[in-house]
Amino acid sequence: MAEEKSFKYVIIGGGVSAGYAAREFAKQGVKPGELAIISREVIPPYERPALSKGYLNLANKATVPQFYVCAGDGGERQFPQWYKDKGIELILDTEIVKADLAAKTLVTGTGQVFKYQTLIAATGSSVIRLSDFGVQGADAKNIFYLRELGDADHLAYAMEVKEKGKAVVVGGGYIGLELSAALKNNNLEVTMVYPEPWCMPRLFTAGIASFYEGYYADKGINIVKGTVAAGFSTNAAGEVTEVKLKDGRTLEADIVIVGVGARPVISLFKGQVEEEKGGLKTDAFFKTSVPDVYAIGDVATFPMKLYNEMRRVEHVDHARKSAEQAVKAIMAAEEGKSVPEYDYLPYFYSRAFDLSWQFYGDNVGETVLFGDNDHKSQKPKFGSYWVKEGKLIGAFLEGGTPEENTAIAKVARAQPSVESLDVLTKEGLSFVTKI
């Protein structure tokens, strides 16, 4: 039996949240030997968004260690040596299979036992796989998902081997849009398939989506809407050769990439922690219902002060900020002090081809489209506002300058009153830049 190890603080998970939590612990003066990070991954925490952005640009590839955290917000990159220097134990390639929160004990797959005084759950999300739905042939070779560095490595290799081949991207969300662009930029023939009437339906309106669909079509990307992948054919080597669609059509494919969503990894805590909206329920300091257990990033369902409701957010920005908030709260509580409540403004962004958009706030209510959203424009710049009960509560902008992006963030937080949608349509971007 492996010996038992004990730490004052343990973080389970080695993603973005874990890396930013480690930085905050170091800032707050954690003592050597007090903190351990236990991660299934084989490398230190890194900026996950880089996988779908810079990493798959084969001609000019961004590689680890360039995107170790905290490179994403301009901070110092945390190489393995950084953790050593700070006295933080980085336990990689190690999976916790049992968490007994009452006994404050964690057990790994090899029977190693870890004790803690304070636990931070930063287990993140896992991708939803087509095999989860029993899709025929979904375990064929060259069907890829993108969540971890290993996934990106396998995909980058296949993109080189199947150069100028046919790629089918299943899903029209974040991953679908960013990877279709990456594949196209690397000279593959790309088809996107998704069941919804337009791409990125969780955020985009029909007006926003029509721009991106037009732009992608101009780049030679074939878009198939309103159907899903129902099965796959393979060759003698077990490699995928075609995608069978539910509507009866088939698409030739050398590579298939699936981006149909993710789900929070909370099975370790089932039946021990109060849950809400698919995540672990926390307060404004990311404390769960169990004393000394905190949850951050994708797995936390927390009170969103701005909208007075519980939300769970899967995004790198919240992963970073929730980590900092939880660590500050933990350290303050030890000194009998407190920190302000978490007051998060939802933020999403994406970059693909020469495009770059940002969104702040909430996308509910009536919408107004403004600006030049002709996908054939040299420099398209357009956006959308969301108005609810006479207040502007959400703002989206494609092609904005840093100042304009700051302005839409400010206005989404301030929620100014709006006279009428017509005024907003007419004023467009100037509505926020003059506030």
UniProtKB/TrEMBL annotation:
It catalyses: 2 monodehydro-L-ascorbate radical + NADH + H(+) = 2 L-ascorbate + NAD(+). Its cofactor is FAD. This is monodehydroascorbate reductase (NADH). Transmembrane segments: none annotated. It comes from Arabis alpina (Alpine rock-cress). GO terms for cellular component: cytoplasm. Belongs to the FAD-dependent oxidoreductase family. One of its GO terms (molecular function) is monodehydroascorbate reductase (NADH) activity. The keyword Flavoprotein applies. It comes from the Eukaryota. Keywords: FAD, Flavoprotein, NAD, NADP, Oxidoreductase, Redox-active center. InterPro entries: FAD-oxidoreductase/Apoptosis, FAD/NAD-bd_sf, FAD/NAD-binding_dom, FAD/NAD-linked_Rdtase_dimer_sf, MDHAR3-like_C. Its EC number is 1.6.5.4.
